[in-house]
Amino acid sequence: MIAVPMTLSNGLETRLLDSGGNKPALILVHGLANSLEIWQRVYASLAEDFRVVAFDLPGFGQASRPDSAYDGPFFGAQIASLMDRLEIEAANLVGYSMGASAILHFSKAHQHRIKRAVLAAPGGFGRRVHPLMLFPALPLIGKWLGRPTALNNQTTLRLAIYDASNVTKELVETTNAHAAIAGSEMSFHRALITGVGLLGTRHMFETAELARNFQPKCLVLWGNQDRVFPAEYSKNAVALLPDARLKMFEACGHYPQWEQPQAFYHAVYAFLNEKG
Asked: What are 173-224's pLDDT values in tens digits?
């Protein structure tokens, strides 16, 4: 995977992978503390049938780290800015965790630009989260506890990924390298506490409202062993989304595209090529 620098239409800098061609556009949106590298196990397979675009969300990877809120509307706006910059009027969107939530926020003003959507383990559909995610929300010391240090990064990846063998040396090194970029402590902490407070998930009513108004056909994916957002919340998401179906993965935590790449690819491919 060779990514190239690109300036979004809003002036922020990012990196881009674009397989190009005249195939249907498919945009991949990563989650908290990750980068476009997290798609490397499914990118080539998806690119056989789609124009696949992956990018670093501002605040993460090698993208800009502006002094911003790093909330749902912020990340949703980055999708719009990417599509504007690439002159993509409408696309299939695939995201997981924070990236899936960004797609929901993007839909508030841009439903017409979404052909179909794949939402993997989006936040906001249940109160409970893993206790480790609550520490950064603590008063005074939360920001210090939640710093993206090498130890914290290792812990976070091990929490998110069910099978420890998938916490590869390459993934850890990439995560640490990006976390060392100036501004990463700010962007990580703000993004995390936007979605999680001391009592668990925040903005659940807002998420429910976005979901109820989400009109594109939607595939919800979830790992049965997800320790970040419990798998039982998948049913809440499907119940709220007007036109959604659910696919669960076994031996899978919070990153299905990384942990079960073949199953992920086949599920996404079948859904996006489904007639009607």
From this structure: 999 999 999 999 999 999 999 998 888 898 999 999 999 999 999 999 999 9
Tokens at residue 252, please? 């899978």
For residue 244, give the amino acid letter: A
CA distance 220 to 240: 11
- For residues 235-262, give the mean pLDDT: 98
Q: Is residue 42 part of a domain?
A: yes
Is residue 190 situated within a structural domain?
no
Bridge partners for 14 per DSSP: 6
Q: Give the distance, in angstroms, between the CA of residue 124 and the centroid of all CA atoms in the same chain.
A: 13
Is the Cβ–Cβ distance between 182 and 65 less than 8 Å? yes
CATH number, domain with residue 237: 3.40.50.1820
Q: In 162-253, where do the E strands start and end?
A: 196-197, 200-201, 217-223, 244-249
Is residue 85 in a domain? yes
Number of domains in the chain: 1
Q: List Cβ neighbours of 234 (8 Å cut-off, separation of 6 or more).
A: 121, 125, 220, 222, 246, 248
The answer as to whether 169 is a domain residue is no
Say if CB 217 and CB 235 are below 8 A apart.
no
**Where in the sequence is the domain holding 90, given as residue range(s)?**
4-127+203-272
Per the document, the length of the chain is 276
167 by DSSP, 3-state: which?
coil
Alpha-carbon span 17 to 211, nearest angstrom: 29
Q: At what angle do helices 204-212 and 98-110 cross, to 10 degrees?
A: 50
